[in-house]
Specification:
Blueprint: H1 3-13, E1 18-24, H2 30-43, E2 47-51, H3 62-73, H4 78-90, E3 94-98, H5 101-107, H6 109-119, E4 123-125, H7 135-143, E5 147-149, E6 151-152, H8 158-167, E7 172-174, H9 190-200, E8 206-209, H10 215-222, E9 227-230, H11 232-239, H12 244-262
Parallel strand pairs: 1-2, 1-9, 2-3, 3-4, 4-5, 6-7, 7-8, 8-9
Helix pairs in contact: 2-4, 2-12, 6-7, 10-12, 11-12
Length: about 270
């Protein structure tokens, strides 16, 4: 049991999928990103993924990579993520951090977990860390009541799928397309197959991230997944706006559209 499983269980009871919305802290500024995260919650996001920008974002698509680079050039720090987490928690959503492992390692595993929990964080997604390599982090997270969330993909072998499901708490993050993140024009059939495989391996909750950019795509995923994870479409709304005010307006509209799609289960 955790705050994340409670959230996902509640969404399931309501006959819908949860919306997990990602934004990197520090883009377009620390204050602007926090305001954007609050806007996402108000527009329907259940869980906010607070991204920590990293200098070598090997798994990020161009939109998120650009935003992260801008945030780093502006001087964003790991500690800014905890400020954002606290802000999200205070408006009633569930904040989790998404970060490459090196920032956690450099900050200190136990210190990172302690500061995140103190800010109201409930979990961490580490896309470049596997459960077998991440035993020390898993232990630190557990000591402070944080969920450790790991990724599976279509290429994940049955053996590693079972290992990842066993190690993950909160939910399993299923990425149904190989390569970097980014918006896609269609969902395809690999997503549902991967969710089914992950459930067969013992996962209670599986959330899908595959570049969702519309309410229609979110509705399609909501038919079989517990959560719809969206990042690039929301970052784009901010990145393409002439100013923060217009960016927040565009962001609100996009979040509302996708949240409505996630609530449409047949």
């Amino acid at each position: 049991m955790s705050a994340l499983t409670d959230c996902l269980r509640q969404a399931r009871a309501e006959g819908r999928a949860a919306l997990l919305a990602y934004l990197p802290v520090g883009f377009p500024s620390v204050e602007g990103s926090i305001e954007a995260m609050r806007t996402m919650v108000d527009a329907g996001a259940d869980i906010v993924e607070v991204g920590i920008p990293y200098s070598d974002p090997v798994l990020d698509g161009p939109i998120i990579e650009h935003a992260g680079e801008a945030a780093l050039k502006a001087g964003v720090r790991v500690s800014d993520a905890f400020v954002a987490v606290k802000a999200v928690s205070e408006v009633g959503a569930f904040p989790i951090v998404m970060t490459y492992y090196n920032p956690i390692l450099q900050y200190g595993l136990d210190r990172f977990a302690l500061d995140l929990a103190a800010a109201g964080g409930v979990g961490v997604i580490t896309p470049d860390l596997t459960p077998d390599i991440g035993r020390d982090w898993r232990a630190a997270a557990a000591r402070h009541g944080l969920d450790s969330i790991f990724l599976v993909a279509p290429s994940t072998t049955p053996e590693r799928l079972h290992m990842t499901v066993e190690a993950s708490t909160g939910f399993v993050y299923a990425t149904s397309l190989m390569g970097v993140t980014g918006e896609r024009s269609s969902v395809g059939n690999q997503a549902e197959k991967l969710v089914n495989r992950t459930r067969e391996a013992g996962a209670e909750f599986v959330c899908i991230g595959l570049g969702v950019s519309s309410g229609t795509q979110a509705s399609e995923i909501a038919q079989y997944a517990d959560g719809v994870i969206v990042g690039s479409a929301f970052v784009r709304a901010l990145a393409e706006a002439p100013n923060l005010e217009e960016g927040l307006k565009a962001l609100r509209g996009k979040v509302s559209e996708i949240a409505e799609g996630a609530r449409k289960r047949t």
